[in-house]
Each structure stands twice: as structure tokens, then as C-alpha cells.
Amino acid sequence: MARFVLTRRSPLPPAVCWERLTAWPRHGDRVPFTRVTVVRGGGGRAGDAILARTAIGPFRFDDPMEIVGLTAPSAGRDGLCRLEKRGRLVLGWAELRVQAPGQDTGETGEAAWSEVTWTEELRVARLPALLDPLVARAGRLVFGRVLDQLLEPGAAPTT
Length: 159
What we know:
Layout: E1 2-10, H1 14-21, H2 24-29, E2 34-40, E3 49-56, E4 59-71, E5 79-86, E6 90-99, E7 114-124, H3 132-150
Antiparallel strand pairs: 1-7, 2-3, 3-4, 4-5, 5-6, 6-7
């Protein structure tokens, strides 16, 4: 399996980072040729399903995912979302974690910044394991860009 880990520090508080990371359709806005939709539930709890559909000309594939664990960040607790990939072509899992550094802004008690980690392990069916390093590199590039854009301080709110 190809594995990659992305870590970013953000000047945004954990709740804002979390809101942006779990606004699933926004992920598709940042991946070329891909549309991401919530296909079961509201996208905010275990059992909900997300579908990333990629289409480049006649080449199309789906990456269906199920949220198997989701805990929003709160005072003293990290936010964590685990997705299991349920497709025929793309298999594996992803975890999105939002950590508060422990410092706060004063009166609100809200963290002044956040650390976000995106960990993904995936396998592409019928692709030899020999190519896992290339798949991991592509994942770091594509999802690193997604993460950077989602966490951009000046980005539009998710609502």
C-alpha cells in the first residue's frame, strides 16, 4: 500500500480547520477533474458516505468512502475523522486530524492556531506494489495542494 502523511500548521482555530476539512464538496473543488459529494447522511457522522468521482474524458472512476469514525475537536480533545475507502479501484483509508497546540487566545479559551495531519494509505487495484512510491508521491502532491487551499486563511467560509 502507498502511504503518505501531510502535516500543516494553520493560524486558524481548530473549529474552523475542522469545518473546512469536513466540508466534503470543497475537496472536489480543489482536485482537478473530480467532484466530491455526500451520498449518504449529512457527512458529519459515522456511517455517512462520501463519493469522489473523477472523470478525464472517457476515463472515469469512483472512490466511495465511508466515515467510520468522527470526533470534532473541543477543548483538550483532537478532532479525528477516519474514512474507509470502499471502491473496486481505490482501497485503503484516510485520517484527518486537527490538533490544538494547547495555547489559547485568552478569554475564549480557543486555540490560537492548529496543526492538521492528513494520513492516507491506499492501494490502486491491479497496480503493482512496485509503483506504491509513485502513488504516494502523487498523493502527497494532490492532497497537499487540497490541504493548503482548504486551510488558506483568506479562503471563503464553507457555508
